[in-house]
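Section 4.2 – Deliverable D4.2 (structural model, holo form)

The reporting period included a commitment to supply a predicted holo structure for the target in complex with zinc ion. Inputs used:
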Amino acid sequence: MPIKRNLSVATAAPVKLIKTAHAPPRNSGFLERCHYCNKRIAKNSDVFMYSDLCAFCSVECRDRQISLDKLGGSN
Ligand SMILES: [Zn+2]
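Output (structure tokens):
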């Protein structure tokens, strides 16, 4: 039986990137490139969030990063 994972962040709907006064400075670049494949994420495209600081271009990249974190994470 597959283990039901309880990752509310990972299973949330895609987060639409919204410009706010609290947006990070442009030179931080943390929402501009996919954390997994390093592909540039278009300003007007969906950004898939995982954790507080990771943005991904697609749910596939995010899932792969989550898998990597589980393999190398706390055990
Ligand atoms: Zn990616």
